[in-house]
């Protein structure tokens, strides 16, 4: 359930997205807040500026959280973002341990506003294969850890 406190922080994330546009960047902004609403970090999309397809604000904040926050602090943090995280960012958020995400626009709404946002090609996947060969490094690594 989204509270009025969530809405205030979500508006700040939307403001970060608006500021990104003013700077010539793509219109996506995010912030990470602690359980009391304290803003821990902010980021906006810099894909074009950095010539880096991974420079999404959600991914930047997931990386930051994984480096800076302990497991408990990450689990109590909330990411507020102007648009629903893409698959790449969603995976990073899971791995970072961030406990909650609140977003303004759903992916389907974004695609309605900008159809090119949904025009990603399908990447073919083949596998699994070579299990006996692939398991060696995995087993060696986890035996030592």
TrEMBL record:
Gene3D superfamilies xrefs: Cytidine Deaminase, domain 2
Protein name: tRNA-specific adenosine deaminase
GO molecular function: catalytic activity
Lineage of source species: Bacteria, Bacillati, Actinomycetota, Actinomycetes, Kitasatosporales
Cross-referenced PANTHER family: CYTOSINE DEAMINASE FAMILY MEMBER, TRNA(ADENINE(34)) DEAMINASE, CHLOROPLASTIC
Classification via SUPFAM superfamilies: Cytidine deaminase-like
Pfam families: dCMP_cyt_deam_1
Residue intervals of the CMP/dCMP-type deaminase domain: 4-121
